[in-house]
Design a protein that fits this description.
- With about 400 residues, the protein is mostly helical.
- Helices cover about 70% and strands about 0% of the residues.
- It is built from 19 helices and no strands.
- Helix 7 crosses helix 8, helix 9 runs antiparallel to helix 10 and helix 10 packs antiparallel against helix 11.
- The longest helix is centred in the middle third of the chain and has 23 residues.
- The protein is globular, with a radius of gyration of 23 Å.
- The protein starts with a helix and ends with a helix.
């Protein structure tokens, strides 16, 4: 019997890595072909592992089978005879490795994200394509991350792949100017990847640790590239480190989210907090301030007990909203207002947002009215939140709050 959870984790981790390596090292110019090969590889794994069990080194098994599938495709195709054969014969063995090592994966994945970010397609299309084929997010996860819908994301991906096929080439030779041009988009891709891992928009388990660690790994690799925007990558590493330090304290034994004040601080990962401080200091070496700097600073203040903590956080949120407005940022700022100014002012500001249909918006309003002692309004907004909550774990938590508020 195969552990489905373990299979999902293995496939999720290896999907994007295999796509990246196939495209860079084996000359797969059609993205769809790479996806088909990886899908065939996973299908074979499910069949073989169901009988023989998961091998000791599942990643190595998948990588070897993927390479074999690609070679079989080339041998069967007209492309192999007319175009590929000459190129393969002219390359050294080093250019076409028989085994996909961890070093090759590390080099390929981040590089291929930059390759995608230098394609002649829109920025949104670049982000969708990278999140799908190089980060392994599914259509629904991408749609939630970009505040869109499945149909729109599918259309963007279809057109993007068609464009790549029409161009007939995926240029994997990058110069410094290519890294400069794609850097901001790559930052956003890794940021969105982490957000999906830290709070899943569609899965019952809110935290996906493997995605969080993958985002941190990519951010660390990105921070090593010496370009003008390097300090923004330092800030992103700091941001991810501070948030990830609280992963094990964020939920209780029933997988219910815990508010910040209810978390057990003994479960915080102190080495990650120290890493965050280190990279936040590195990010402060230049005067350029990005949204990642501000969000990292906010995350840092949350790890402290400084009496001026909430005042500093409010100032940072105010500045963040001037750089890039986001309804979620505005929502978070509203809660901070209740800490620095008054609950009544926070409620007034929250009502201005008018985020109808957002369960977190209603939960915040319920919490603010609870603090104010208005249980009738608390119940009203908890019921509204329940209407727009699809995850069972969140539904259970809201129902529990409703029960307490109704006593």
């Amino acid at each position: 019997m195969i552990d489905d959870t373990r299979l999902i984790e293995i496939f999720k981790t290896e999907y994007s890595k295999l796509i990246a390596v196939l495209c860079q090292y084996y000359g797969v110019t059609e993205v769809q072909l790479a996806e088909d090969i990886v899908s065939e590889t996973f299908l074979k794994a499910m069949k073989v592992w169901a009988h023989k069990g998961v091998p000791d080194k599942p990643a190595a098994w998948l990588r070897k089978v993927a390479v074999n599938h690609l070679k079989d495709y080339y041998k069967r195709s007209k492309i192999y005879r007319e175009k590929i054969l000459f190129n393969l014969e002219s390359k050294t063995d080093a250019a076409q490795p028989e085994e996909i090592s961890n070093d090759i994966v590390e080099d390929s994945q981040l590089k291929m994200i930059f390759v995608v970010c230098n394609l002649r397609i829109s920025d949104k299309a670049k982000i969708c394509l990278a999140l799908r084929i190089l980060c392994g997010l599914n259509i629904n996860e991408i749609a939630k991350a970009l505040l869109s819908n499945d149909e729109a994301i599918n259309k963007i991906l279809y057109r993007s792949k068609k464009k790549i096929n029409e161009d007939g080439i995926l240029n994997t030779t990058l110069k410094l100017e290519n890294y400069n041009q794609g850097y901001d988009t790559v930052l956003r891709i890794i940021y969105l990847l982490f957000n999906e891992g830290y709070y899943s928009s569609i899965k019952e388990h809110n935290v996906s640790e493997e995605i969080c660690w993958e985002a941190l790994r990519l951010a660390l690799l990105l921070s090593k590239i010496q370009v003008e925007q390097q300090t923004a990558a330092y800030a992103l590493v700091a941001l991810i480190s501070f948030h990830s330090s609280r992963i094990h304290a964020r939920v209780n034994s029933s997988n219910e989210d815990l508010l910040f004040n209810d978390q057990d601080r003994s479960k915080w990962n102190m080495p990650l907090i120290e890493k965050g401080k280190k990279y936040l200091n590195l990010a402060s070496q230049r005067r350029v301030i990005s949204k990642y700097h501000l969000e990292a600073a906010i995350a840092f203040w949350h790890t402290t007990d400084n009496p001026k903590k909430w005042d500093n956080i409010l100032q940072l949120y105010n500045r963040l909203l001037t750089i890039e407005y986001s309804p979620i940022v505005a929502l978070n700022r509203t809660y901070v207002l209740s800490k620095t100014n008054s609950v009544n002012e926070a409620i007034k500001e929250a009502n201005k947002l008018e985020l109808e249909g957002n369960n977190h918006y209603y939960c915040l309003l319920a919490e603010l009215h609870k603090i104010n002692g208005n249980h009738q309004m608390e119940i009203k907004y908890l019921r509204e939140a329940l209407k727009f909550t699809t995850k069972k774990s969140e539904q259970h938590l809201i129902k529990k709050k409703l029960k307490i508020a109704s006593r």
